[in-house]
Amino acid sequence: MRRRRNKRLSFGFVNCVLALALVVATIVVTQTSALQYLKEKLAGGSEKNMVAAMPIPGKARMGDVRPLITLKNAVKGRKNGQLLVKTGYVLYFNYERNNPDWVAWELTSDEAYGRLDRDGYEFVSDDALPLANRVAFFDYKGTKYDRGHMCPAGDMKWSPAAMRDCFYMSNVCPQDRELNHVSWERLESACRRWAKKMGSIYIICGPVYWKKVPEYIGVSHRVAVPDGFFKVVACLKKGKEKGIAFYYDNTDVSQPMRKAVRSIDQIEKMTRLDFFSELPDGMENRIEAMRDLNEFEERRYPARRGSSPIKGEEAGAVRRYIK
Question: Would you give the distance in Å from CA 299 to the centre of its chain?
């Protein structure tokens, strides 16, 4: 009788241990998945750096998802450097010019509402680059140019790691001080406004060079000075896909946003870069031909429809550049 009671107690104890082990395993798996998701988000995505078909923020309807976009492959074109994956953004760094060719990121509505203070963060050399290309803070010393963020600190206020990474000098170009603080900053603020309104937008920006031999600055590194800057923006919300682009000269002349509007197709001709090639051809062609600021802004502007020819010095530079 005592042996049977002991056997029952042993059996009950084993069941308790197995049940406890099952609970612990479930917790570990759940936490691992959550930590992996957080790790991938902070690292700019998974190994493929994907923002996969995830629900649009604020939308719970079945099938209301964004098309698949790979930030690493968001831009195709010239190769003379190194792809760098940072927290919240991806860039391609050009070894010859010591500037990024392009910087790409997704900005969601939640991230656009970030409140992290940028104070206390400083520009630092990027040790992911070869020593010869690690542009330093002091390379801009004594010049008339700002250290102009491509992926702005204002878009990275959702994470201390993202804020830290946006201050790498690999994310910086020599930018006219007036452009940086006025016209370009207005466009950055507009992008955050659009992300809040639309749930999510994709942004790609970078330098444009018209001169065959650009101006260079630098103390210990040669850093090319861009003649201008581009920014392309795409909203890929299902059923409301749209795109727009902008070009600004790297000068102190005031440049209203509505006059800076271009189509993405025009920016592709300027830069010889191919944007959003992973999208279905029909969608890509449609959004890359758009150039109506009214599609993004609540304020109404005179529509600039179609892909009107690029004129003047810009046109000559394009013709030289795309030969």
Answer: 25
Are 45 and 74 a contacting pair, CB within 8 Å?
no
Per-residue pLDDT at 69: 77
CA distance 109 to 75: 23
Nearest to 275 by CA among 236, 234, 308: 234
Q: With beta carbons less than 8 A apart as the criterion, state whether 289 and 307 touch.
A: yes
What separation in angstroms does the CA of 56 have from each of 39, 60, 147? 20, 8, 34
Give the model confidence (pLDDT) of 115-152 as tens digits. 999 888 999 999 999 999 999 999 999 999 999 999 99
**Model confidence pTM above 0.85:** no
pLDDT for res 89:
97
Where in 162-307 does DSSP place strands (E)? 172-176, 200-208, 216-217, 223-224, 228-235, 242-249, 261-262, 274-275
Annotate 70-127 with DSSP letters as a single string. EGGGSEE---SEEEEEETTEEEEEETTTTEEEEEEEEEEHHHHT-----TT---B--T
| Cβ(224)–Cβ(214) below 8 Å | yes
C-alpha to C-alpha distances, 142 to 38, 47, 180, 218, 252, nearest whole angstrom: 41, 41, 17, 9, 18
Residue 163, CA distances (Å) to 34, 92, 152, 153, 159 in order: 22, 19, 9, 6, 6
Burial of 2 (0-12, 13-18, 19+ CB in 10 A): exposed
pLDDT in tens, 238-288: 999 999 999 999 999 999 999 999 999 999 999 999 999 999 999 999 999
